[in-house]
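Can't paste images in this forum, so I'm doing it all in text. The chain is below; anyone willing to post the predicted structure tokens underneath?
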Amino acid sequence: MNISNGALISKHNNHLYVCDLENYRGTYIISEEGNIAGLINAVMWFITQHNTYIYYSNQRDNDYLYCMYTQDLNERCLLQSPCSYITIFEDRLFFLNETNSQIYELDLKNNTAVPLIKEKIFSFIMNAGVFYCAFAKGLLKFDLHSKKSTILTDHIPMCIHYTPNSLIFADSSCDFALSRLDFDQKIPVKISHIKTQSIVADEHHIYAANLLDNRSIVRMDTSGGAPIRFCGEKADKLHIIESDLYFLNHNDKNAWYKMPLSGGRNTRLLPA
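Text version of the structure:
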């Protein structure tokens, strides 16, 4: 669910991997107790795990595709090509090649990559083998198994999130209005009066940094209803991991903060 915001925080083996966008020291490993257990040199974006490896785009090295063995933290470059939106499905790795804006599939055995979709893509998410892609003509659906492509709408989405009955996104064709596209419709519906460029959702709620209120975080039910102001900090890059919401706090030099999804006090994740 966090890939649309960069997948900058991820949890593996009961440890958080946190990309430092405050001082760019690297990626911190944080224990369950909240202590710093390590610091990796790589500046990791689009972190994802498969078996005993973590895959990521290394901003420290031209956004090349890297992997790290979690047992000894040994890093190696898999592909000298700038990449993003790293996704693993059925033992297959997919990514967006930032050089030509195409989605590729990488063979993990011999590190060869082949293009999957001919269209130039801005961003994508995948659910159960179905890609939902932002591109110049709107929102493209691509089924990995049937290889069939369908344009769902001519509105261009940003920060796409999947729900069982719809897609939630910021509609860049409508000044980044928070919007919902039901799968049986062609025209997105605006959700309340919110403009955003950072959204995250779980099965119950949508969270968004509201551009109309100094990026404060609002929360609303996925089924509808009025939004509530959930957190007053100037937030970006929203992530959900288990029962906590994580975000960059622009009021505090882009430091990471976390807050329980049940509500309450937000706290700084890393020391200054």
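The first strand starts at residue 9 and ends at 12. The chain has a mean pLDDT of 94.
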